[in-house]
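Below is our example:
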Amino acid sequence: MDPGGPKTTDSANKLQVENLRSRGLGPVSFELRGGECMCVSGESGAGKSLLLRALADLDPYQGRVMLDGVACASFAATEWRKRVGLLVPESAWWADRVGAHFTTVDDTLLVDVGLGPEVADWSVARLSSGERQRLALVRLLCNQPGVLLLDEPTANLDPKNVERVEALVARQQREHGTAVLWVSHDPAQVERVSSRQLRLTGGRLEGWTAS
């Protein structure tokens, strides 16, 4: 394998999940195509966050997870997590200043979420929960992932910033062919952003619906 990791195929950013099981979750099987957004729904404790963590290779699992036909195990862990990026509800911040958490800062992405380049000089301590959530999304998108795993990405946001985040994710799908797996408890949001819905009950795949 070359240093850049496995090469993608013509069906870029396609995530394939076969008989995935992890900590009471599963079996779960589905396929997510590049440019598609699929929402995951279910009651609290149904396994939604467990599913995303397994797909991001943060929790051990059985079964197969593939990106463009190449198994997760064929990637270095850091490369997989760059290509299959997970946004968790409470993001980690390990330095005092915002800019220290970015290798490069895309000012366009900052503007897209209602912030400006000056935020790089801010103290993390001054950030609201909503600002942290939006900046965590920008930080993730700076890695240019082919697959986005979004765990309640707008839970702490006001309606205007919910609109901004939804528009930004839709643009990533449209312009970069990004595949999106989005956990949301908001039925109206699910209808707005997804073309298909995956429902989990008690850790098992209950079925599919199409928006």
User: Anything to note?
Assistant: Helices lie at 48-55, 77-83, 107-112, 129-141, 159-176, 187-193. Residues 15-210 form a domain with the Rossmann fold fold (CATH 3.40.50.300).
